[in-house]
Amino acid sequence: MKKEKMTVGKALVYIYVILFALICLYPFLLTMGGSLMTDREATLEGFKVIPSDITFDSYRLIWANKNMILNGYKVTIIVTILGTCCSVIVNGMMGYGLSRRQLPGRAVVNLYVLITMLFNGGMVSWYIVCSRYLHLKDTLFALIVPSLVNAWNIFLIRNYFSGVPEEMSESAKLDGASEFTIFFRIYLILAKPVIATVTLFAALGYWNDWWLGLMLIDNTELHPLQMLLRSMMANIQYLQTMSQQSSEAQSMLANVPGNGVKMAMTVITTGPIILLYPFLQRYFMKGIMVGAVKG
User: Fold this and answer.
1) To bridge 125 with a disulfide, which of 23, 80, 101, 121 should be the other Cys (CB 3.0-4.6 Å)?
2) What's the pTM?
3) CA 240 – CA 109 distance, rounded (Å)
4) In the chain, what percentage of residues exceed pLDDT 90?
């Protein structure tokens, strides 16, 4: 095979892509550098990618509560895996049903799902339903069920499924396949790009969620990682406020790198979920573009 010659235009494209990638990577590198800085250096010189005086005090402070952090990781990982799998299946089945033109009342159900994207019943009614009627209070399901169904993901999957020829499902039915068999063994296999896209959306949502933990979880053993780190940040901010009035609080805060802790928490919570993206990025753009345009 002949090797393609590097033209000027192609070289400029490569340079542009590399520079754009570095620009996108810079905020994360700046966050990592900020997590290794002292508060004094951050105040005087601002955050830098490579600090002059590297310190791991922020990570030591967070790791001092390692049992709580590890438990938060365990809860978050379980919730993310279970929630993502259930969310993909539920949204996928809903999208599959709405993509069937012969479904009775299809237009009404489509409108009902669309309305949920525009309006909601309010926080009080939502809390009453979750705690009193669904009995989700202080359970692991409280971190999964409220975020299980997403109207945007349903429409994304529906639009993708609408582009699959009807003849495929009809031929499968002639061979005796049920709707569940057609969905799991044909449509899900054909819809890898959109399923990968929805999986990424759902996983990011569950991993980054702290609101459900704040509203529905009182048991600290069930607090997700984001909720624990939010509580730690709130405690630091409280000490910073009290340090202006109390010398005792000021002495406690003297050894707490507040800015560094914020950056360190960002690195800790963002790092693991970044590892998911390389496995799904090959499908991501295709899934979101085709799923958003078709139908």
Assistant:
1) 121
2) 0.78
3) 51
4) 14
